[in-house]
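tool_call predict_complex ligand=manganese (II) ion
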Amino acid sequence: MSDREKIIKLLREGERFNLVSHQLPDGDNIGSLLALGEALERAGKEVQLFVPGGVPRRYRFLKGSEKIQPEMRSGQDWPMVVLDSSDLERTANFQEQIRQAKIIINIDHHVTNERFGTLNLVDPGAAATGEIIYLLLKEMEAEITRDMALALYVAISTDTGSFKFENTTPRTHRVAAELLEYKLNPAVISQRVFDERPYPFFRLLERALAGLELHHGGKIACITLSSAMLEECGALPEDLEGLINYTRNIEGVELGIMFFIESPEEVKVGFRTKTVDAARLAGLFNGGGHPRAAGCRLRGRPEEIKERVLREAAKLLEEGSRSDKESDDARNSESQ
Ligand SMILES: [Mn+2]
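tool_result ok
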């Protein structure tokens, strides 16, 4: 019997389950947890739902999200179903309790999944854990309610960035299409999950764009914000999220930078790039990240920090365009 078949058998026959997922929760882990949780409850099982830190504001409209707990106070010996987590470290405060469980069912779609479960259902071809859960519930012939369909649609649409990322497959669209049959309204969902932000975010955006600067012949764009501006706009640090993307999205800009002046001598710097290595740039200032998104934190006078960062950024762009030209030259000489 395959792990998938064993998991189905266990979910059918078991009487109680803990469903657990990762920290910094997103639409996929919350949605997957709620859909599988409701299916098991409807089958008469006792179910507890856990996410480290609790549910972010923007997913609290999902039915059942109020049942998700940030701590496990009972049922520590129940079978653990771990969703959307490539390793147990990601389950933060739950990892010790999970490690001690007799049965761990690991359901995930990350290619880097460590197969930490007693039983593992890992499908890197799935765009989201929600896609795996939907197919699993269908195979189990579980009744799918509108609330479950909504939770799964949110799971899949968030992990695919509204069906825009490379992980979106024909199967993803087929699953999404079947979910829409439950009379979901995609416009309302995307409005709620992607577009809507609290009013202070827009006041901050106004301040950010008012101070937008272009450098290096329009290839570098930067915005500057400060703790004082947050206060003036009635905004929280979480409202800064996403502002930096406006810099990178400007036509012709290769590198977007956000300076956030936390205090008169401390500046947080974010980088977003289209082609150059953001992690390398952040690394010059002891920061880190990914090739297209990185950041660092610097101490000193904000004006001086800004100058230094812009100088290094310009150098990196120069190098980038030189090496592009060199490889073009190399290609040209090869073809000759
Ligand atoms: Mn996911």
